[in-house]
Design brief:
Elements lengths: L2 H31 L1 E7 L2 E16 L2 E5 L4 E6 L6 E2 L4 E5 L2 H26 L3 H33 L5 H30 L3 H26 L2 E3 L4 E6 L6 E2 L4 E7 L2 E7 L1 H4 L7 E5 L4 E9 L10 E7 L9 E17 L4 E3 L1 E8 L2 E6 L1 E6 L2 E5 L6 E5 L10 E3 L5
Parallel strand pairs: 1-22
Antiparallel strand pairs: 1-21, 2-11, 2-15, 3-10, 4-6, 4-9, 5-8, 6-7, 8-10, 11-14, 12-13, 12-15, 13-14, 15-20, 16-17, 17-18, 19-20
Helix pairs in contact: 2-5, 3-4
Length: 404
Amino acid sequence: MSKRFMIILIFILSVVFYSGCSDDKEMLKKIDEGKPVKSIQIEEVQSPVTLRYIGTVTAGEIKKLSFKTSGYVDTIFIKKGQLVKKGDTLAKLDIKDLEFSLKASKAQMNIAKKQYEKSINGATQEDIKKAELNEKKAHDAYKFAADNYKKIKKLFANNAVSQHDFNKVKLEFDLRKYELEQAQEMKKHVIKGSRPEDKETLLHQFKKAEVDYLHKKSLIEDAVIKADINGYVVDVLYEEGEMCSAGYPVVVIRSKDEVVKTGITYDDIKRINKDTKVMVYDSKDKVEGKIVTIDSMPDNETRTYTTEIDIPKGNLTIGSIVDVEYILGMQQGIWVPVHSIIQKGDDYVFVVKGDNAEKRKVEILEVSGRSVMVKGLKNGELVIVEGMKKINDGEKIIVKKDSD
């Protein structure tokens, strides 16, 4: 190793040694002066008292519309996503079989109606004449059978005819006698009119037929689905030609109104009412809402009380998740950044006391976003918001002048 190289090496080591000593001295000097921190001056301000929840934007009303009778879908008049108005026809069934059934039911109702009216108004002269004629026919047949029976009876007594022939003639005589009695009774019934119990029976039969007719008429009317609100078609669940059972949803529509639903805890539900001011936030917009419903019973699964908030149309997207802020009123207090709070058993912050840091226990009263309202600080004090995790109570500090 040359002498020149040795001289250069010694020089470099000397520079490094003295430079390191200089840095150590500078560092010790800075530590002795205090640890650098940033602080903010706190002020007692008036701020809103709020409750914050997560909500979901949904349609104000969702309707599942169905037919009241089974049948084949004849026509679908709308498509998914279409805007519809109240009263618009959405779908209808094939009603050929229903129309045949309606005609038969109407005919049956008309017959029952005429029978009842006849019992009320009494028999016509034509009916009476017909009853008298039937009685005369029955009387003539009876007289002939009676004369024949007398002759055969004498002959049978003298053993001139067989038992079989006698029984045959007697049966004929008894039959004609019964027919005459029936004809006479019918004539009396026609002349006197129907009995009260008969009239009541005919009335019930007419009413029953009328109800059946009206029911089948309503089935035809209900074979058409019409929109009962203004809104949008969410889904169409059947196609033309498919068999649809009564009561099964065919078209789903939603109203134009938009609401936000949140679940409120038992403790908080007592703090709000329909007049409570509400603000709704998403990543882009902020809108003011109005509480429209507050459930009186909690949800079985979440045990929270569902609250619906009406919001302006079109501001938020259906299905989106939003922040909901219930503003309960205003309060006076001191707010500090949430990151300035140190939690080690108790909650505390560091405040500036001259050139030193002072550890101060605080009580958190409210939380709003990235700030908390605390009790335990005084108006105008300096709270350390940067570097507080590297200092101890009473330790010397240097407060940077660019603090805000």
